[in-house]
Specification:
Length: about 110
Amino acid sequence: MASTVINVPAQARRGEILEIRTLIRHPMETGFRPGADGRIQPRDIIQRFSCLYNGEQVFSAEMFSAVAANPYISFHTVATESGTLSFHWEGDNGFTQTETAKISVAD
């Protein structure tokens, strides 16, 4: 399991624009670089990231081999109601990681 950092405000006002920041520790090996033995290291990248807000997708991204190790993703959404943000990463070699964060929205 990869280590993640997720920054979501715990509380917000309805209609407020939220900045959400995520970081996941992952090597993002391109599949083009030789290792110490001279052989090409196998590709190992995160291919997709998505965020659901109470089950509705609010952001998604596709990643490719040019993305740096430990990808940092920042995006914005609007606070509509209290609930759960679910973050999901998918990658090569069956890699998946899901994390959640709660948010409380007041009028």
